[in-house]
Amino acid sequence: MSHMSMNLLHALALGLTTLDLPNDRDFEFLNTCIVFLTGTKNACGQGACGSCTVMVSYYNHDTNNIVHFCANACITPLCYLHGMAVTTVEGVGSTKNGLHFIQKNLIDSHGLQCGFCTPGMVMSMYTLHKTNPNPSQEELERALEGYKIKQNLLKSSIIICGTHVKELNVIKITDEHIEVGAAVTIGVLEKVLREKKSTIQEAGQRTLNAVLSAIRWVGADQIRNVATVGGHVMSPAKNHDLQTLFLAIGAKLTFHSKDAKSIIYTYDNDFIKNNKSTEGSGDILVSITLPLTREREHLFFFKQPHRRGFDYAVINAGMFARIKEDGNETEEVRVCYGNIDRRPRMVQGQSNIILNQNWSDDMLTVLSSVLEREFGDSDTERLQYKLTLAASFYFKFFISLRQQLKISNNVPGVTDEALLGHSKASQYYNVPTKDGNSIVWQPTHHVSGIPLTTGEAIFVDDLPSYSNELFLCHVGSDRAHAKVISVDPSPALKIPGVVDYVGHKDVPGRYDFGVVTKDVRLFANGEEAIQNSSLYPFERKLERGDVDRALKEAEFTLDGTVNCGGQDHFYLEPQTCVVVPKKEHKEIDVISSSQTLHELQAEISEFLGIPRNRIVTKVKRLGGAFGGKQSDSILCTGITAVAAWKHNQPVRSTYERSHDMRITGKRHGMMAKYKVGFSKEGRIAGLSVEFYLNAGYTTDVSPFVADIFNVAMSVPYNIPHFRSIGKLCKTNLPSCNAMRGFGGPQASLVREHIITDIANTLNMDPEKVREINMYREGDTIIQGKVLEDFNLTLCIDKCKKQANYGKTLEDIKGFNKVNPWKKRGIAMSNVMFHLGYPYINFNQAGALVQIYLDGSVLITHGGIEMGQGVHTKVCQVAATVLDVPLDLVHISEISIDKVPNTTESGGSIVADLNAGAVKVLVFYDIFQNACLILNERLAPVKAKHSKTGWKTIIEEAYKSRISLSATGFYWPPKRTIGYDFEKNTGDFCEYFTYGAACTQVEIDCLTGEHQILRTDIVMDLGQSLNPAVDVGQIEGGFMMGCGMMTSEEIILNDKGHVDPIGPINYKVPGIRNIPREFHVTLLKEVKGGGSVYSAKGVGEPPLLLGVSVHLALNDAISAARAGQGIVDHYRLPCPATPDKIRLACGDQFSKKVKGA
């Protein structure tokens, strides 16, 4: 790797302390300059997630001041930084030198969970503070937009870095034009235009407005601060916003040739068609000249992203019109579209259908034929949607132009900007009066808050390298459906630095594994053929009553289908591990980003053929998991362990984001068919559901997911005759695996759409149908469990009141009557989620508690910290039981040699089990509970030295030869038997977590974009161990559910591969996608509770409430279709991406534009 090709993140990883290294020093030399700046994370390598954000500073000699800006280290070329200073999170604050107030406020506000991207957020806010000490809320939200998608940085005919070439960094504004140097960054251009806007004549401001509108949604600040205008314009990409706008403006591009001559090109179709924008000519782009609009000239820019904030355009458009001096006829029109064809294009044929007439279907017919003639042979994806958008943008242009010419009034919802506004939120929970030793129930800080905000927190790949360490890269097949005949690694082995190829023949032991079904192979080999059967030999049924008879006798029956796509876990820390053979007694240490250390130890034991007591699996923390670091971590770490075993050397492996997304499992996609019978009052008499889950190429955990789907379908509605049958589809996709919610979200979507369909048929409010069919206190559910402390109705009632449901419903109806192109919807959903594994053996945990002579307490338990706050809660419990300050309690790492046979961290019950092992209710003295055991041992010493402090008590106990170390073991005391899914017998779960949500949305019928206006959530968490942590889990879980329901789409490319390779084309919700109002309430003083200190688990249940977003969008679409005279029971696909929303609206644009 040359210094020129090296990016800033490479330098930070190597600990570069200077950028002025002589050219004859090679890359290996740089490794001797190690300072290990671990705070700047590499989560995607695409400039997309914000985890690698740093602050760059330089002295501006023209303005005589220091300029600061934030940038993504992973895509910032090292050569760009000549003469600049780079500040990483380590330079902001530290445990040694103290925290910056931003870091402290982030901790105080409970603004972190797994913490992997927290250093990047700190740097964004720190940079904002350095440039603007008193930012507005809009500026604060904008600073945090950079946490998901990438724009190309610098891909152009400029083959030198122009950062410090003065002639390339000039911005000149005259009465006629704006001249922009090619090396001017997009961020600098935006700043200058905003500052100079008031000095420009009114007509010329139309150009500035259009340019600023385009710049606003180009990437995020980290991108705009580094990406140059010239690089953006000359990029060969097809969807760059400024290219399309500059095409409409009629920009002039000035080049300097090799012989120092100036060449000026008009940026038009010919320039683009003749490939002037490709590299290799030797010409250097010097500047871009943008003519200012004059009187009678009008310019507009439009863009529709996949989701608002830090995203590429689905399509964009620049439209220019010059009006004749003697009337309203057009003299010249330039209509340009980007991302429909391979390059932006000006469409000449549309100039003849504008003005001098009102908008009509005839005009739309002409427009549609022009668009289809121009782009009908395009091979782009989603062509019908793109052409519909193109027609919609033209409609917006038409209306906007007529308004500027004052020849028509405003048409509501056509020319409005995307509805954003400032986000508002509230959290309501009960904090009991502190009685001196009750550290539980308090909203204490995250126990690792300080190192997470300072970048000092260590994740797996932050561990220093061993001197003889090897790095393993995983090689995937380039065929989605094939038989492996042979593997020839010889070309790879010829590459300098490549040591070996590791394959299935190198596995000493067994190489098939799986959490539920052991049918996953560590390596593919030539002896296996892919079966052609489309279904696995699996079927699971949950049934009560006589369903067929109930359906036959029902007053009304409905049948329908509900589909749901998959979802990627999108943890920020990729799959990663370090495996270290010890060379003695066949021992091996495994540090892995796994949420199942026991299973990992067991499988590696089988792979290598050695006893488990020689294998130590451990981890300090994970940068997110959501179920995705269960079986997939075994694949990553197992292969690495085989390589380490073969070479008897430490081996490290970290997936690149693209590899991670393509090879790892996803949430199960689903199709469900249902038939329901009900009365005229809405009471369900019988329900039959048959669903199919996409299991992938193996079953792995899919049978268990099907079981949980059945369970989630059966509650919370009391359906006397019920049948749900699950089947597993075999496909050539990565094996779908565990994911937060585990079949529950898919079932909730099906269940709540059935309720809505019944309500629509009977012209009832869906909430009335829910109320009629809801279980009641004392009812017996299908699994045989009697409902006690059934608090779901309390959650629903409080949520309705908090959201002002009745009035809001009427307000939305009124809004929809007067807004033809914007529609609103509202919906509620609920969750009744079981806590406690149905399999009884999973419900156990151990802990080790040790007290040192200085009074400090060290805990090791079996729960893995991955952002859910389990370490914080366990420390709270220990401090409360031992009656010591929280800061005396510490958890270092989770290791299988300290606590053996751990249960995987999942199922929302990690804190229940592991806090229970540290402490449980006192009257259950049959358990070995570490802190209670220690308290019992210390009781005589405490009695004798009651007036002394904790440290003295410990010292006296030591002198009395009292053991200050204890192991704890716990299982939920209320259950003695597990549950059999096949027979529907046994004790199903420990308890239920309840919740309700009400969501209001608004859609733009012309573009398909939506905004969540408000969400209210009320949940019953018993007596939360840490309400601040749990509210964060509710908000985060809900937004993950929103992503599943709206933006996160798994698409396969033409080779059968999973197409999304990272945040560049996988749309996780960002800050602009959260509800504009977000209110979360925990029920206070409710009956019942969970296990430890009456707290309930929270990780998964709120995700299911994301269904309310999908239902609300469906409600808004129904209003849009009704406005077009379409009255039906339309089913919005899931995820409800903008194209699905737009094409569902049923207006004249989507009808006329058919696409290819």
From TrEMBL:
SMART domains: Ald_Xan_dh_C, CO_deh_flav_C. The active site is at 1100 (proton acceptor). Substrate binds at residue 742. Mo-molybdopterin binds at residues 595, 626, 740, 907. Binds 1 Mo-molybdopterin (Mo-MPT) cofactor per subunit. [2Fe-2S] cluster 1 binds at residues 44, 49, 52, 74. Its cofactor is Mo-molybdopterin; [2Fe-2S] cluster; FAD. Residues 1-19 form the signal peptide. Gene3D superfamilies: 3.10.20.30, 3.30.465.10, [2Fe-2S]-binding domain, Aldehyde oxidase/xanthine dehydrogenase, a/b hammerhead, Aldehyde oxidase/xanthine dehydrogenase, molybdopterin binding domain, CO dehydrogenase flavoprotein, C-terminal domain. Keywords: 2Fe-2S, FAD, Flavoprotein, Iron, Iron-sulfur, Metal-binding, Molybdenum, Oxidoreductase, Signal. This is FAD-binding PCMH-type domain-containing protein.
